[in-house]
Amino acid sequence: MLIRAYRHLSTLGPACLWLFALWVMFGRYFVVSINLSDSLPGRLYLIQKGAIPRLNDLAAFQYQGGGPYTSGTRFLKLVKGVEGAKVTAVNYDTGFSDFYVNGSFVGRAKPLSQSGMPLNPGPTGTIPPHHYYMSAPNPDSLDSRYALVGWVDEKSIIGRAIEIL
Asked: How many CB atoms lie within 10 A of CB 142?
């Protein structure tokens, strides 16, 4: 019985070692993320760690904290503005603000969250070096329209993301 188990392990051992090595290497360069919100249409994303996103890429970043999410929560958003882009807002008496990046509409900021928490509009002006304007198409997305997120520092970027499902 012991000899039989040894033969079985010696046959599968190299394959198991290779699978383990591939798993470790995959984890060094990629991470799989599940989107639990409705901010983006997909549910499963592959994140290429360390890949610097470009305009209109999907990207993952570490949220700095505040409001409904804890510091370090992974956010997935679209890059709608890069350094040097001009962010403007049109503020309305109702407390809503329409945000534009280089003249293109990127979303409307609301005065209150779905849970009734007051929301402050995000920054306007020229996006500084090594920062991004992150957005999502959902009107309830917590993104750069709000001061809680603001412009995302490159140091917070995990990498580019690719929708799988």
From this structure: 23
In the Cβ-directed half-sphere of 41, how many Cα atoms lie within 13 Å? Answer: 3
pLDDT in tens, 140-157: 999 999 999 999 999 999
Cα dihedral 151, 156, 157, 163 sign: negative
Q: What is the pTM of this model?
A: 0.86
Contact 76, 59 (CB under 8 A): yes
- What string of DSSP letters covers 32-95? EEE--SSSSS-SEEEEEETPPP-TT-EEEEE---BTTB-TT-EEEEEEEE-TT-EEEEEE-TTS
- List pLDDT tens digits, range 107-116: 999 999 989 9
Report the alpha-carbon distance of residue 152 to residue 148 in Å, rounded. Answer: 10
